[in-house]
Amino acid sequence: MADQTETKNPPVATLKDGPISAKVWRNVSNEGKTYYNTTFGRVFTKENGEYGETRSFSQNDLLKVEKLASEAYRTVQLNRQQDKEASREAAEAEPVDMAKERDAAMQNASSQNRGDVGPERQARQYDQSEP
């Protein structure tokens, strides 16, 4: 039984222990905030030989679910840390670009205020001054 979400947004991690699996999903809210969910499943063989998946676990499965839950927790923590670092790097890169744009705009404005003219304008002024 395939998860409908899986086709649209693949899991960031699939952790397995025998027939038990944990899938860690990365989602983004309408407000742009990233959050993670984890789903657990157990694969089994149906009487007709096809594979199925259930969200129900026997007593014997619970220790595997516990182990996978712990691994999923570490996976989410690692992904959240990577998200923070990527966000921080993007934020640090943006002011540098803005500072360059601001400096260029200020230099352009100050050269216009001083009456400086660029090479194209100088050529036009020179051409107009000749008889």
Uncertain spans, ≥5 residues at pLDDT below 50? 1-6
Give the overall shape, derived from the CA principal axes.
Answer: elongated
Helix segment count? 3
- DSSP, total strands: 4
Give Rg in angstroms.
30 Å
Structural class comes to alpha+beta
> Strands of the biggest beta sheet: in what spatial order?
1-2-3-4
Strand-residue proportion: 15-25%
Calculate the terminal CA-CA distance, rounded to whole Å.
87 Å
Secondary-structure element order, N to C: HEEEEHH
Provide mean pLDDT, rounded: 82
**What characterizes the major β-sheet?**
4 strands, antiparallel
Structure characteristics:
4 strands; 3 helices; alpha+beta
Give an overview in words:
There is one protein chain. With 131 residues, the protein is an alpha+beta fold. The radius of gyration is 30 Å and the shape is elongated. The longest helix is centred in the C-terminal third of the chain and has 52 residues, at 62-113. It has 3 helices and 4 strands. A hairpin with a 2-residue loop joins strand 1 (13-17) and strand 2 (20-28). The protein has helices at residues 4-8, 62-113, 119-129; strands at 13-17, 20-28, 34-45, 51-54. The protein has a 4-stranded antiparallel β-sheet with strand order 1-2-3-4, covered by helices on one side.
